[in-house]
Amino acid sequence: MIWFVCGVILFFGVHMLPLVPVLRQGVVAQLGELPYRGLFALVSIVGLALIVVGYGQMGVETLWFVPIWAWTLPQPLMMVASILLVSAYMPGNVRRLTRHPMLWAVVVWGVAHLLVTGHLAAVFLFGVFAAYAATAMVALNLRGLEYQQAPRSWLWDGLNVAIGLVLYFLIVRIHAWAGVPVA
Questions:
Q1: Helix axes 120-142, 101-115, angle to 10 degrees
Q2: Could you give the CA distance from residue 64 to residue 6 in angstroms, rounded to a whole number?
Q3: For the purposes of burial, counting CB atoms within 10 Å of the CB of 130, is it exposed (0-12), middle (13-18) or buried (19 or more)?
Q4: Which of 9, 30, 114, 139 has a beta carbon 3.0–4.6 Å from 19's, enabling a disulfide?
Q5: What is the DSSP letter of 119?
């Protein structure tokens, strides 16, 4: 569990910097913009790797038993999460509805996985990510981030949906390859 906790501290510690502009500006002033970005990426990757290794080493302590009906929910939720994730990085109208499509994708991803995993390690993993994303949205909203105002062509939205669904099916294949159950 120590690797998992260290990974969470590293990954989310570095991700808290952008939420507090004064801290981020101080680090950028010390390092410069490009070294900051490089260090941010490196610490994020190391943190994520430690989370994965630590999660794999954690025991399966069951907190609750997942009801059969819950297994019908993750697939549509993960499709939505995949589309939101793609929409965060491509033009489209999703940003007219939410300022944070990537963070919403993380919340939906976390909730979808919590619905079908009733063990302690999963609650830590998916709960921490979903809680961070929700906290980040609140922090960014308090800073007054604007909604996208100009409408985009609906063709972009169609492309976002298509790429999001391709991403979803790739993730399903990776789950199968890794031997992780998919609903």
A1: 160
A2: 26
A3: buried
A4: 139
A5: B
Report whether 4 contacts 55 (CB < 8 A).
Answer: yes
Q: Which residues, in sequence order, are bridge partners of residue 62? A: 119
Using one digit for the tens of pLDDT, what is the confidence trace for 68-81? Answer: 888 899 999 999 99
Task: Record the pTM.
Answer: 0.84
Residue found under tokens 């939906």:
108
Please choose, from the candidates 62, 60, 61, 56, the residue with its C-alpha nearest in 3D space to the C-alpha of residue 4: 56
Between the alpha carbon of residue 141 and those of residues 137, 146, 169, the distances in Å are 6, 8, 32
CB 15 within 8 A of CB 132: yes
Sign of CA dihedral 3, 57, 177, 181: negative
Q: Are 58 and 123 in contact (CB under 8 A)?
A: no
Find tokens 């010390």 and name the residue. Answer: 30
